[in-house]
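Posted in: Protein Modeling Q&A

I'm a second-year student putting together a small comparison for a lab meeting, and my supervisor asked me to include a predicted structure for Protein RarD. I've never done this before, so apologies if this is the wrong subforum. The sequence is pasted below exactly as I got it from our records. If anyone can share the structure token output, I'd also love a short note on what stands out.
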Amino acid sequence: MPWGSRAGGGAGSGAEDWGGPVAGRGEQRVGLLNGVAAYGLWGLVPLFWPLVDSAGAVEILAHRMVWSLLLVVVALLVVRRWAWAGALLRQPGRLVLVTLAAALISVNWGVYIWAVNSDHVVEASLGYFINPLVTIALGVLLLKERLRPAQWVAVGTGFVAVVTLTFGYGQPPWISLCLAFSFGAYGLVKKKVALSGLESLAAETTIQFLPALAYLLWLGARGEGTFTSQGTGHAVLLVSTGLVTAVPLVCFGASAIRVPLSTLGLLQYLTPVLQFVLGVLYFHEEMPPERWAGFALVWVALAVLSWDALRTARRNRAKALRLRAEADGMDGTARTDGVAERDGAAEVGGALGADGAAEVDGASAQRGQAV
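Accepted answer (user: helix_wrangler)
Welcome! Here is the predicted structure, written out as tokens:
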């Protein structure tokens, strides 16, 4: 469970960062601990899946879907958050998007479990290293977003890295690409759905539940299921797949409402770093020179991307504060002179709304959508 008991910091604490207004320092510490816990647990997940390897990737995936839903239902009963479900059922368009999100995350989970249990931990980690680059590329292709020069450099460097790794592996890194594109597309769909992490997981696993349960019952009827045939320990581990799914997500949710977006953006790299280290040092997967070269290019691309994001966030925050100060100054002058300079104030206020507040509040909105 996440550290800390409160969901936000005191207003007016002055503890802001480049991603916009956030909680006070104590709450930020709690958020940072939860963020490290979330991304750290996701990074250490490769140690868990081999423990249930005898079940096979598809059976493990089905158990993950079933037990995740049961755990999430218990959590929703505790927090008493059900109003979203009725609203969702009355919106067929959002239901279609939730179904698409469930399909995408099913592919992502299944490929990842198979990759880890088939000795492809390093290649799986690459998928999450390049995910930010793929997300940007999808934004350009599907949403017609315009990139800053540094983002073009990062995406171009990432493309060169994939080409380099293609030569290193003797084929395109399909596992990495599948993980990155499925998760990138999942993120885009989730933005349209706009549910919190707990609610989103509940909706998606509800859709997954019946097919997953039917598959497990079919396996059991054929005598091929492992849940009841390999001892209590194995059954407990399969049930624990629900915890493996839900606990990091809860920690992430507790972090996202407390720390700046810029901090979360940097913390996310903890997951693939840990996976990469496990793949090389614990699972002893091969890393010939051309693979090192490809990974090095990916890391350069991510460094450029992170630098650009932090610089842009800092500029946007400074601009928002400057425009807000100018607007406050105009209000003061108007009160002193008794003259309502409506045209000038409206112009500055409009600039603040479009360029300043939107930049700062947009970061908070993205954090909310992410959880």
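A couple of things worth pointing out for your meeting: Residues 197 and 226 are 30 Å apart (CA to CA). The two ends are 15 Å apart (CA to CA).
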